[in-house]
Amino acid sequence: FFTTLFQVLYLQHREHWDLGLSRNPRWTLLRRQVLLSVLLSLAIFAHLISGLLFVWLCVDLLFTLRSQRKDSASAQDIATILLLTTVFVLPLLIGLAVFVGQAKGLRQVFAFFFEYHLSGEFLSWPTSLGQRLLDCYTGVRTFFVGDFPLTHPVGEALASLVGFAFLSHRAHSLAPQICRRLLLWLGLLFVHFFFFQPENPEAWGPSSFGLIFLISLGLCGPARFSLFARAVAAISIAWLGFLIGQSQRSAIAVAESVRTFT
Q1: DSSP 167-182
Q2: Which residues contact 44 (CB under 8 A, 6 or more apart)?
Q3: In the chain, N or C: fewer CB atoms in 10 Å?
């Protein structure tokens, strides 16, 4: 929740889209920066994977500095959000590691927060590139539609990849600034979970906003065949709702059987 809310308001703050939220004169630049820093801090506290948002901002800052316009005001804006977030988060994280995790030094503080990565149980190097990519697709697919069997996993994964690439390209032509940043976010998640439990559907939860936005914009943006594309989008949403309903019923049936057994 905090991750998606931060991304929505950050893109509004950077004026990559207009949701009508910045027209209130009481929302000064500093107040918006503080709000975004608090949201980013809450996202990190809710789940450490949201720390990738900090990396996301750093890369956005780098792109801003390397852009042809070299907008120093924009770079200073992003840097301020990063600095405020560091001020909010760092003391609390160190305190948590010291007082809860009994950390005695920086190495132990690092080990406290990256225990799962350092244990060797969850972080792994792929023995097969194709299988690992298929694991990533399976994790994403399971997150959205539930644990349905893959009858033709390779074909389905390739078709989904081609479809997503086409829709992302179309979305990028309509809103390049937003789509670049959302694709960057999806790329960061992919790089992380490619090595860290890619088949786990919960891992791909933070990707839902970016994926849904890119696919929706690619389907429903203005185009020659916009009516057809919107019909496809409506049918896809209905089908997705049906699959989610089936998954929920299956999960309820399993829960009832476990309750009866116990």
Answers
A1: HHHHHHHH-HHHHHHH
A2: 50, 51, 53, 54, 85, 89
A3: C
What average pLDDT score do residues 69-82 get?
80
Which is nearest to 73 in space by CA: 33, 19, 26? 33
Torsion of CA 150, 156, 158, 160, to 10 degrees: -120
Q: Which residue has the higher pLDDT, 74 or 55?
A: 55
Record the pTM: 0.78
Half-sphere exposure of 223 (CA within 13 A, CB side): 16
Phi, psi of 123 (to 5 degrees): -90, 125
Q: Where are the alpha helices (DSSP H) in the chain?
A: 2-13, 29-46, 52-66, 72-99, 106-113, 115-119, 129-145, 153-174, 176-193, 208-220, 226-261
Q: At what angle do helices 176-193 and 52-66 cross, to 10 degrees?
A: 140
Contact of 217 with 171, CB cutoff 8 Å: yes
Residue holding tokens 């301020």? Answer: 80
| DSSP label of 123 | B
What does the angle CA 249 – CA 250 – CA 252 come to, to the nearest 5 degrees?
65
- Out of 2-11, 107-116, 218-227, pick the least confident: 218-227
Yes or no: say if 57 and 27 are a contact pair by the CB < 8 Å rule. Answer: no
CA distance 53 to 8: 12
